[in-house]
Amino acid sequence: MPIAQPPHGFEQRRVLTSEIPKGRRYRRIYRSEFPDPLGYAKSPSRFSDPRALSDDDRFGVVYFNETSTSCFLEAVLRDRRDGILGRALLDEEDLTQRSIATIEIVETLSVLDLRGDAPVRMGVPSEVVRGYDHRNAHLWAVAFHEHASTLDGIVYPSRLDLSPNLAIYDRAIGKVRVLEVSPLIEDPDMPYILERFDIALTS
């Protein structure tokens, strides 16, 4: 069923925002083949730019979460445990080929807040925030980015564990910095994560 698209004049309407303060830290999991922990491709993601333009003319988005566990769900496990009773198997390369970075906010971010009942209050369909099909979110992604508030990004609940995901636009990358990077498989939280989700690694 088609969802409502951004109404005419949305870019000038008041939206609900939150500030992410300087000093707050986040985690990000990414493939180790890419050298920059803050790098971003312009491939499809929930709030990526869907327009058929050149890469130079489309905006980029980088995603973070506050914990290693939530990052693992978003970047590695996703829906791969669906329909599995008991232990799930995961290829060890899914960990060895990824790194995890600690990111610090160095300048306060102003972000669109899509948590709680905020989407309802702004007229944003729930599928934009929690839907499995990202194409629904794409209908609104450009409207969010082009809003007159010149937002730095979006904070929204993960559809996997409801923890707050942070999506930062490329224009705000200078407001964050990388503190440290390590192999994902060596992250101190990894034993807990594998036990919590009953996952065994295979080679």
Question: What structural keywords apply?
Answer:
10 strands, 203 residues, five-stranded mixed beta sheet, three-stranded antiparallel beta sheet, RES domain-containing protein, alpha+beta, RES_dom
- Uncertain runs are none
Oligomer status:
single chain
Mean model confidence by pLDDT: 93
Number of strands: 10
Main beta-sheet annotation: 5 strands, mixed
**Radius of gyration from the CA trace?**
17 Å
> Gap between N and C termini, in Å?
42 Å
Number of helices: 6
| Helical residues, percent | 10-25%
Biggest β-sheet: strands ordered side by side in the sheet: 1-6-7-8-3
**Which geometry do the CA atoms define?**
globular
How would you explain this protein's 3D organization?
The chain is an alpha+beta fold. The protein has six helices and ten strands. It has helices spanning 68-77, 93-96, 118-122, 126-130, 134-145, 190-196, and strands at residues 17-20, 25-31, 61-65, 88-91, 98-105, 109-113, 153-157, 164-169, 176-183, 199-202.
Task: Describe the protein's topology.
Blueprint: E1 17-20, E2 25-31, E3 61-65, H1 68-77, E4 88-91, H2 93-96, E5 98-105, E6 109-113, H3 118-122, H4 126-130, H5 134-145, E7 153-157, E8 164-169, E9 176-183, H6 190-196, E10 199-202
Parallel strand pairs: 4-10, 6-7
Antiparallel strand pairs: 1-6, 2-5, 3-8, 5-9, 7-8
